[in-house]
Amino acid sequence: MSARSRQLHLVRRPHGLPVLRDFDIVEVPLAAPDAGEVLVENLWVSVDPYHREVFDSVTLGTALEGRALGRVLSSRNPEIAVDDLVIHRDGLRTHTVTAQARVIRPPAGVPPEAYLGILGGTGLSAWVGLTTIGRLEAGESVLITAAAGGVGTAAGHIAKALGAAPIIGVTSTQAKADRLLAGPFDEVIAYRDTTLLGQLAGRDIPLALEGVGGSHLEAVIGGMAEGGRIAWVGGISGYNAHTPPGAPGNLFDLVHREIRLHGFLVRNHMDERDGYEAFMTPRVADGIVPVEQTVVDGLDAAPSALIGVLTGANFGKHLVRVAE
Ligand SMILES: NC(=O)c1ccc[n+]([C@@H]2O[C@H](COP(=O)([O-])OP(=O)(O)OC[C@H]3O[C@@H](n4cnc5c(N)ncnc54)[C@H](OP(=O)(O)O)[C@@H]3O)[C@@H](O)[C@H]2O)c1
């Protein structure tokens, strides 16, 4: 079976925050699957902050990649059947032919798209940051920046399940803060209404998962306890900048107070995926951990979603539903 695919292309290199006219949607024919390949109809595609870095290097006029969940329409892979649900990286398009698909079988109570969020690389990033990098211990306080995003909401639930207390979040608005307080967070700072540096100074927090960089990283350093650990997952506040942000003014506090700042990439920790899925899947299936996501419909909505994830339009994981 051959098919056509509508694909999102970057047609202009963005300067600063991307704008809608940087993108175009192009329809192309797909070759029939070769041996080992499957033809997939994408159902859900993920939009992520890392796409901003992709925009700086991707060849203009080619299909953008992204994590996706789809249904197999035809298969020349003996281990994958028609109608199987698969996860792959050929997102931001309606259909793809790929040899790199992983079959998922969501148990009862688990929506398939959770494998792009709380049960996917997003949740795994929070897990790796809090456990392998941050070495969270029950009873410890945890600080989470970008707390209302995909990684942050997952981190709140993981921290709760591992016995952290209190769990402190940072997000932009009081409306997002209120939603977080209805979940696992004990305290949430709405950074647009306050001076984050002043709010966190001297808090003696042992562990932070930091995903914003810039002034947030500086405030987090100021809030850490002596010997504290910062698991540094990202720097979204700088992704649209023309030049890299400067170092935090209090960077030398790392020396004075023996604070460990440890950056990491989830792709180097994929061996932890099975263990994390075993930990989190039953909690999602039982409804103990909700699947928190912001959904927009149709591939045509993907450009605004890609911009939205860089401007705080989402609560939880930001996803595009491409087909039912
Ligand atoms: N190291 C890795 O392997 C890895 C893997 C996944 C993600 N990450 C990083 O982790 C961070 C969170 O990723 P995510 O997938 O969970 O995205 P996300 O949090 O779902 O979306 C980004 C959030 O960041 C906040 N934000 C955007 N611009 C900001 C700014 N200028 N200052 C402060 N906050 C800003 C917004 O929330 P507010 O409205 O609250 O500001 C927005 O909702 C990102 O830096 C991402 O690059 C790294």
UniProtKB/TrEMBL annotation:
Q: Where is the signal peptide?
A: none
Q: Which GO terms describe its molecular function?
A: oxidoreductase activity, acting on the CH-CH group of donors, NAD or NADP as acceptor
UniProt KW keywords: Oxidoreductase
Query: Is Oxidoreductase tagged as a keyword?
Result: yes
The parts of the chain that form a coiled coil are none
**Which residue ranges does the record assign to the Enoyl reductase (ER) domain?**
16-320
At the top level, the lineage of the source is Bacteria
Q: Which PANTHER family match?
A: PROSTAGLANDIN REDUCTASE, PROSTAGLANDIN REDUCTASE 1
Report the protein name in the record: Enoyl reductase (ER) domain-containing protein
In which organism is this protein found? Answer: Xylanimonas ulmi
